[in-house]
Amino acid sequence: MTARLLALDTATEWLAAGLRTPHGRWLRHESGGAQASARLVPVLQQLLQQGGESLGALDAIAFGVGPGAFTGLRTACAVAQGLGFGAGLPLLPIDSLLLVAEAARATQADGGAGAWWVAVDARMDEVYAAEYRHDAGTGWHTVTPPALYTLAALAARWEAAAPVRVAGNAPRVFGARLPLQGVRCIEPVEAPGEMAETCEGGRAAALLTLAEAAWARGDAIAADQALPLYLRDKVALTTEERLRQRAAAEPRG
Questions:
Q1: What residues does the Gcp-like domain cover (predicted)?
Q2: Residue closest to 18 by CA, chosen among 74, 82, 71, 92
Q3: Which domains does the chain have, with CATH numbers?
Q4: d(CA 251, CA 253)
């Protein structure tokens, strides 16, 4: 029987949400950022209304656990916990970097089986990155868990063992500062709006796909066990650090 799942993610500047029931899928994707905390609950209410479901009739709530933007992770976790406590529902923590991998994989004509790296701009010349593998029969497997890398550390890692495919925006943002020659780089297209239930691309569709897989594996946890995945304690550079970083990046004569 198809599980009834509500899913949400605000780990990036986009708000992604979806509802899965035996009657279909409803997807939502819109600008988030500072508006995510105000928009998230109304979006979820709209999805439930569209799907003809009540919160209490659901089986679980999935949420993007991180890594990602500090405020976004807190928003997703707090809303998921509040809804879970209120309705007595378990939660499904979803790796937010794996969302990027799944959204990219869904665009591949060959099904995207094999090795994947995800690399996402974490600001301050750092990257959130993780390595996964997708098997047609068993789905996703984590090879290297999500971590926060300096550009130099990630470049050294890839120079030692070159990735085959990289999903995410880091190749576009950092370009030649990462060793990407011969690497297939895929950045899933983000487009706002309400999407058809047959849509296979984008973060919202990936979120529901991973939520269904997590439910099938029995990954549900109690709402009071939910925690965001924070990989960075420091969220800003000092003036001195910014000047030193800028000087290091300037071309030398």
A1: 37-151
A2: 92
A3: 5-95+190-225 (3.30.420.40), 97-186 (3.30.420.40)
A4: 7
Q: For each of the chain's 253 residues, which pLDDT tens digit applies?
A: 799 999 999 998 889 999 999 999 999 988 766 676 778 999 999 999 999 999 999 999 999 999 999 999 999 999 999 999 999 999 999 999 999 999 999 999 999 999 999 999 999 999 999 999 999 899 999 999 999 999 999 999 999 999 999 999 999 999 999 999 999 999 976 655 444 333 445 889 999 999 999 999 999 999 999 999 999 865 444 455 455 655 655 555 4
Q: What are phi and psi of 155, to 5 degrees?
A: -60, -40
For β-strands 114-121 and 126-135, DSSP reports them as antiparallel
What DSSP assignment string belongs to 43-77?
A: HHHHHHHHHT--GGG-SEEEEEEESS-HHHHHHHH
Give the integer Cα–Cα distance in Å for 144 and 116. Answer: 10
Q: Is 166 left (phi over 0), alpha (psi -120 to 50) or beta?
A: beta
Is residue 240 helix, strand or coil? helix
The CA distance from 127 to 206, in Å, is 21
Report the alpha-carbon distance of residue 6 to residue 61 in Å, rounded: 5
d(CA 8, CA 121): 21
